[in-house]
Write a structure and sequence with these properties.
CATH superfamily of the largest domain: Alpha carbonic anhydrase
Oligomer: single chain
CATH topology of the largest domain: Carbonic Anhydrase II
Distance between the termini: 57 Å
Shape: globular
Number of domains: 2
Structural class: alpha+beta
Length: 371
């Protein structure tokens, strides 16, 4: 079963029926109808519009911390790495809000034509140099979960940051340095796979490739970012990027492909969660609606929330109130002519308030605006 699932994922990025040029992302839906559906990926993550939620921690099996043999392949669309073993995947993943046990399937990269484009997801319109996707599959339910990590180019960091990056190489026990070295090994081999179906065998450590900054992320339901654009994919996009030497990414542009990313798709009515919830005191798998808030006046009367607002909200000018309605459109809450707020979804309103600090508004400013 595992082998068949793995072949399904790999085959979704092979073949000549689509590409990132003449038959690029804008044309995919002509052949693959799912690419025009309403739960597509990637998306632009608007942090002000996310809803806080705390999930249980990810639990990676000990095999992630061991070195294994991987096959690295140029499949005509990206460089994809798969476990090079006859048995089922030894890499097991649970927790993190995922249902059941997932197995590592493959890892691949997306990059762009320069150091400021290449990531498929964007955060508040900001792009990164690339994006790494660790694809996992639940063999029982066939559910697919993708862990996405941004690739940052050191060209986009300060000189001090670049010097710091180089100095890290002197300490082989530095966890971030281990990640850098592991990726250097990957790039040194993968950049030479400049023909379709070129492949190589590498000894890699998945935990080192992922790094240690896996505690904060965004979560939503979307699709594969390549044809056939299958929906129902659980996306985890980690907040902290891994910084790479620009020369390594540039080698991919020159030797493999100039670019291989899909532009963001419309979010429509989907919800993006942000983990962890800063107001959550040790609870798991909860969101702001679990605070049982039902109105603005309830929040004002709630001592715990009132205290949190005093700490979280910094007084700034009221210049982004329009974003209140941008994130939560007419189907959930609208302004009446007399500027009263009609509440059709109380939990949604409370989530709006709890995220209002992203707009640069104080709680009291928001309250006075809509009361």
């Amino acid at each position: 079963m595992y082998i068949s699932l793995l072949l399904t994922i790999v085959s979704q990025t092979t073949g000549n029926s689509w590409n990132y040029h003449n038959s690029g992302p804008d044309m995919w839906s002509e052949t693959y109808q799912s690419c025009a559906k309403y739960s597509q990926s990637p998306i632009i993550i608007k942090t002000a519009c996310t809803i806080y939620r705390t999930f249980a921690p990810f639990d990676f099996s000990s095999t992630y911390n061991l070195t294994h043999t991987f096959n690295v392949l140029n499949n005509g669309h990206t460089i994809v790495g798969t476990y090079n073993g006859n048995e089922s995947s030894p890499f097991k993943l649970t927790g993190g809000g995922l249902n059941g046990t997932f197995e590592f399937s493959s890892v691949h990269l997306h990059w762009g034509e320069n150091s400021r484009s290449g990531s498929e997801h964007q955060v508040n319109g900001i792009k990164h140099a690339g994006e790494i996707h660790f694809v996992h599959i639940n063999p029982e339910t066939k559910q697919i979960a993708v862990l996405g990590i941004f690739m940052e180019s050191n060209r986009n960091t300060s000189k001090n940051g670049t010097i710091h990056l180089r100095k890290r190489r002197n300490n082989i026990y530095d966890t971030e340095n281990i990640t850098i070295i592991e990726w250097e090994k990957y790039f040194a081999t993968a950049a030479n796979l400049n023909e379709i179906n070129n492949s190589a065998v590498l000894n890699l450590n998945l935990a080192s490739l992922m790094g240690n900054n896996l505690n904060e992320f965004w979560r939503y339901e979307g699709s594969l970012t390549t044809p056939p654009c299958t929906e129902g994919i659980i996306w985890t996009v980690f907040k902290t990027p891994i910084t790479f030497n620009e020369n390594y990414i540039n080698a991919f542009r020159k030797n493999i492909f100039l670019k291989n990313y899909r532009h963001p798709q419309a979010l429509y009515k989907r919800v993006v969660h942000q983990h962890p919830n800063p107001l959550d005191r040790g609870r798991h798998a909860t969101d702001t609606s679990s605070l049982s808030c039902c109105s603005i006046k309830f929040v004002l009367s709630n001592e715990f929330l009132h205290e949190q607002f005093q700490h979280l909200y910094i007084q700034q000018s009221l210049h982004t109130i329009d974003k209140f309605t941008e994130c939560f459109p007419l189907h959930s809450a609208v302004y009446h002519q007399e500027q009263q707020l009609e509440i059709n979804d109380n939990n949604l309103l409370c989530n709006t308030i709890l995220n209002a600090h992203e707009f640069g508004l104080t709680f009291y400013q928001l309250y006075n605006k809509v009361k």
